[in-house]
Write a structure and sequence with these properties.
- Strands 1, 2, 3, 4, 5 and 6 form a six-stranded mixed sheet that branches.
- The chain is built from three helices and six strands; from the N terminus they run αβααβββββ.
- The chain has one domain: YaeB-like fold, CATH 3.30.2310.
- By secondary structure, the protein is α+β, with helices and mostly antiparallel strands.
- The longest helix is centred in the N-terminal third of the chain and has 10 residues.
- 29% of the residues lie in helices and 32% in strands.
- The model has no long low-confidence stretch (mean pLDDT 91).
């Protein structure tokens, strides 16, 4: 039996802002490791999630977890352009952070 994909969140940034206001966001281990490796701070990630935009063309479906990974792109206060990959369940789970100025 084929499992049906859940629908994508249509108003992603509204949901992201609501979760941020409630302090409901967590790093995955992978995200934490990439933040250290790429010297991306938690504050920069929150800045992008607050001020960025949903980069729909970079969303992917994760079959293993039967969930959507969403891409949010934006600039930090000092002009660094980042892409943040998140999953929204009971919290925002930050999957990874990519510095687009360095090519990933």
């Amino acid at each position: 039996m084929k499992v049906k994909r859940p629908p994508k969140i249509s108003n992603l940034m509204n949901e992201v802002h609501r979760y941020l206001q409630q302090g409901r966001y967590l790093d995955t281990r992978h995200a934490f490791e990439r933040q250290l490796e790429r010297q991306i701070s938690r504050m920069e990630i929150v800045q992008v999630l607050k001020r960025g935009y949903h980069e729909k063309s970079k969303d992917t479906f994760d079959k293993a977890y039967n969930s959507w990974d969403y891409a949010v792109r934006g600039k930090t206060l000092d002009g660094r352009e980042l892409r943040i990959i998140i999953v929204i369940e009971y919290n925002i789970l930050i999957i990874t952070a990519i510095d687009l100025n360095l090519g990933g």
